[in-house]
C-alpha cells in the first residue's frame, strides 16, 4: 500500500541522544514530503519545545504535542485542538503528589510551572527540553484546567513507581496515564492519547490510519503504533513495546527512522 502519512515521535525516536535530527533522517523525510507524504511530529513534549524541530524539517502539517492534548498549526501558532485535564482532577493530582513529596510539573498555556527551580528534576527537564521553568505556588492558580501534569523522579525509585500505580488506581479510566521516560509519569485528559488524536488529525487530511507509518520508542507511543498500518518500534525501545508492534527498526542513534522508510517505501 502507498503511504500518505508518517507520524514520528521525537525523543528516543527521530532525535539522537544529542537531541538533534540527523541529516539522513531529515533528508529522507523531506524527500517523502516532496512526494506528497504528510509528516507529523507526535510528541509528549510541549508545543514550544517541539516547534523548533518542525521548523528544522520544514514540514507542512500540524504538531501533535502533549501526547495529543494539544494540536497546533506551527506556521501560525494556531491551536487546532486542545483538551486539558478537568480542574478537580488536576487539584487531586497536585494534592497527592505534594503529600508524597514528589516533583510535579504543570503545563498550561504553553508554560511550564514548578514550585522548586533548584531541584534535580527541574534542572534535568530544562536541559532536556530547552524550556524555561516558571516558579509558582501550586495553590495560587485561578484556573486548574492543565494541559498536562507530570510526576518526575530522576532516580526512578520504587516509591515513585508505587505512586504511579496508586494514581492509576485512584483515577482509573478518568484520566490517561503513561510513562514517556522511566523517570516521567504523565497524566492527561481521559480522551487523549497519541493514537486517538493522530487518527482524528489524519481524518482531517482524508488519510486513513492504514496509510500511515508511525515511529516511537516508549510506553506513551503504544496507542499510536498499534492504530496505524505500519507501527514501528525503535531498536532502543524496551522489549515489551517491541513485542506489541508489527515492526522494529534500528536505534535512534543509527537512523532507525530513515532505514525503515528506505527499506519499505523507496
TrEMBL record:
SUPFAM superfamilies hit by this protein: HAD-like
Gene3D superfamilies: 3.30.1240.10, HAD superfamily/HAD-like
Residue stretches spanning the membrane: none
Record-linked CDD domains: HAD_Pase
NCBIfam families assigned to the protein according to its UniProt record, in alphabetical order: Cof-subfamily, HAD-SF-IIB
Name by which UniProt lists this protein: HAD family phosphatase
